[in-house]
Amino acid sequence: MPDDAYILTIGVPDGKTVSIEVSRGGERLAERHIPRGGAVDNELLTAVDNLFRERILDKFAQIRVMAGPGVDNNSILDKIILTLDESLKRARGKEEKS
């Protein structure tokens, strides 16, 4: 993975909130916290959209999404993280072809 790739680490460190940490080249750029309880998939996608809107993430850069602390393998949240990672890879591929 190139050093210039953005890394989104999504975790549930305290069991009460979902955290999104954005880093690039080893430097933490931003962190967001989403209270657990509602539709975590919608809240997570909205938070990622906001990171693009706030220009913390560059839509043309490589972005990797990873499960962080508190995310169980084979959990629904783990599947959402894998799907988000795959979607961002595909979206970047479409941008490169345009």
What would you note in describing this structure?
This protein is of the alpha+beta class and 98 residues long. The chain contains 2 helices and 4 strands; from the N terminus they run βββαβα. The protein has helices at residues 40-53, 76-97; strands at 6-11, 17-24, 27-35, 63-67. It has a 4-stranded mixed β-sheet. The mean pLDDT is 89.
In short, what is this structure?
The protein has 98 residues and is α+β, with helices and mostly antiparallel strands. The chain has helices at residues 40-53, 76-97; strands at residues 6-11, 17-24, 27-35, 63-67. It is globular and about 35 Å long.
Draw up the topology in text.
Blueprint: E1 6-11, E2 17-24, E3 27-35, H1 40-53, E4 63-67, H2 76-97
Parallel strand pairs: 1-4
Antiparallel strand pairs: 1-2, 2-3
Helix share bin: 25-40%
- The topology string of helices and strands comes to EEEHEH
Rg, rounded, reads: 13 Å
End-to-end gap: 23 Å
> How does the helix and strand content classify structurally?
alpha+beta
Number of helices: 2
Low-confidence stretches: none
Main sheet: which strands, in order across? 3-2-1-4
Mean of residue pLDDT values: 89
**Main beta sheet: strand number and arrangement?**
4 strands, mixed
Q: Please give the number of β-strands.
A: 4
Strand content: 25-35%
> What is the molecular shape?
globular
